[in-house]
Amino acid sequence: RVIGTLTDISRNKETENRLINESIHDPVTGLPSRALFLDRIEQDIAKPLALPRRILMVGIERFKILNEGLGHDLGDQLLLDAGQRISLLLKKDESVSRISGSRFAVMHVQVIDGKDAETLAVEIVEALALPFHIMGQEIYLSACVGISLSTEFVEGATELQQQAETALHEAQSHGPRSVAEFHEDIDDQRADNVTLESDLRRAI
Question: pLDDT for 115-143, tens place per residue?
Fold first, then answer.
């Protein structure tokens, strides 16, 4: 004789799979999450004779105003379409991720006979400048791009991302549709400004 119980755990497994997928993919665009994106770069860097990698940080300007003024549904569709436009410019072994808000990170692979990072950055800026037709509205975007150093000079993916973020901040200071490369002389004052604000609050 056999005595047992049978429980249908289909819903539990579906929920578990959905949570796993959301942890490694952005729920709005379906692109890799920041964690997955950086992990892929770390794995690629570790491969023997790996080609140099660079990160391009793409920041869409005035997105918050568009999102709040036109509605979050339209804003989500705008991010989805922007991510797809960037993806179309990449080679098979390159990738794009939505890092946060209206920022995308692109992993660029440097090859001798391929486009360089600066050329790709300009193409991304030009592609995002073309009109988007969403929900019966014509919307125009502008973006800036910051470019990190090559992995030949940097050990890890996190440092590459930080460099690209700093370069993006530099590009944004030059106005819409600007591109900037990271270099050691860039003065990133964001951290200093946070410290200064705290000091001023205590002083007051």
Answer: 899 999 999 999 999 999 998 889 999 99
